[in-house]
Write a structure and sequence with these properties.
By secondary structure, this protein is α+β, with helices and mostly antiparallel strands. About 50% of the residues lie in helices and about 10% in strands. A hairpin with a 3-residue loop joins strand 3 and strand 4.
C-alpha cells in the first residue's frame, strides 16, 4: 500500500523527509513504496508533520498504515435493517436516503428518488444486483452531471470520500472493483484519484439544477449508523423561507400527485 502518493510539500526530498521523521532513508523508502507495514505511531505523526497534513489526511495515513492482506471471500451484499427503512419512509417532505460503504443506495424515500434518481426505478435499491451507486452515478450518469452546476466540486468531494472509505475497507473486493471500473471508464475520476484528495466532511451546501423545479440550494447532513457498519443516512433541506424551500415544496407536491394513482392501483389489487 502506497503511503506517500503525491507529496503535500513540493521539493522536499526523500532524504529530508526521512531525517524529519527520524528514520533511515531505506526505511522511509520501503514505507513510501508499500514494502513495510505496521509503521509506528510516532513515525507516522512525524511524517504527517513533515508533509503538513490536515486532520483528515493524518487519519487517512494512519488508516493506510494498518493495512492487512485482502480477504479472499467475496463480501456479502449490505442489508438495511427494517428499523432504518421505517425511518426513511417516515421522512416524507424532504429527500432522504441510506447508502452503504461502497456508496450503493440501500434505500431512498420518494423525495430522495425524485431529487437524485427519478430516471431510475424507485425499487432498485431493494435488489443488490440493481442498486444505484452514488459514485458511479456522479461520474458515469449524465443525469447527475446535469443536476450539479458545480459538478467538478461534487466530483472532488466524491473521490475524497471514496479515498477515506477505501482505506477503511481495504479487504472489500467489490469496493476495489468499483474503483477499478471508474478508473477505466472515467478519465476525470482517474485524474482525481491519482491526485489523492482526502476529505471527511459530513455536511455540504450545494446548488442543484433540477429538471422539474429548477434551481435549488440544499444543505445535506450525513450521519453514520453506529449499529450498521459503513452505512450512512443523508437528509437534504433548504433554508426556511427561501426560494429553494419553495422549490423543494413544489417537488414534494409533484411527488404526492404522482403517488396518488399508484396508491389507487395498489388498493384495487
Amino acid at each position: 500500500m502506497n503511503y506517500g502518493g503525491r507529496r503535500r510539500v513540493p521539493g522536499l526530498r526523500r532524504e529530508e523527509l526521512a531525517q524529519l521523521a527520524g528514520v533511515s532513508v531505506a526505511y522511509y523508502t520501503r514505507l513510501e513504496q508499500g514494502q513495510s507495514q505496521q509503521a509506528s505511531g510516532p513515525v507516522l505523526e512525524a511524517l504527517a508533520r513533515a508533509l503538513k497534513l490536515n486532520d483528515a489526511e493524518r487519519a487517512h495515513l494512519h488508516s493506510l498504515a494498518r493495512w492487512e492482506p485482502p480477504s479472499r471471500r467475496r463480501a456479502r451484499p449490505e442489508r438495511l435493517r427494517p428499523g432504518v427503512r421505517l425511518v426513511i419512509e417516515s421522512v416524507g417532505t424532504v429527500p432522504a436516503l441510506v447508502y452503504g460503504r461502497r456508496t450503493d443506495v440501500l434505500a431512498w424515500n420518494r423525495m430522495g428518488h425524485a431529487l437524485l434518481g427519478s430516471h431510475l426505478d424507485f425499487g432498485a435499491p431493494d435488489d443488490p444486483a440493481k442498486r444505484p451507486n452514488l459514485a458511479r452515478m456522479v461520474f458515469l450518469d449524465p443525469h447527475l452531471r446535469e443536476l450539479y452546476p458545480d459538478w467538478k466540486a461534487k466530483a472532488r468531494d466524491a473521490v475524497a470520500d471514496l479515498r477515506v472509505t477505501a482505506s477503511r475497507y481495504q479487504d472489500d473486493p467489490q469496493l476495489t472493483e468499483l474503483i477499478g471500473e471508474l478508473t477505466m471508464k472515467s478519465p476525470e475520476f482517474a485524474a482525481l484519484w491519482n491526485a489523492h484528495p482526502v476529505r471527511t466532511c459530513a455536511h455540504h451546501q450545494r446548488t442543484y439544477q433540477h429538471p422539474l423545479v429548477g434551481r435549488m440550494v440544499l444543505g445535506d447532513e450525513t450521519m453514520r449508523l453506529p449499529d450498521d457498519e459503513g452505512q450512512r443516512f443523508a437528509v437534504f433541506t433548504a433554508e426556511p423561507g427561501s426560494p429553494s424551500e419553495a422549490a423543494l415544496r413544489l417537488l414534494a407536491d409533484l411527488v404526492a400527485e404522482e403517488s396518488q394513482p399508484r396508491k389507487a392501483a395498489e388498493v384495487q389489487r
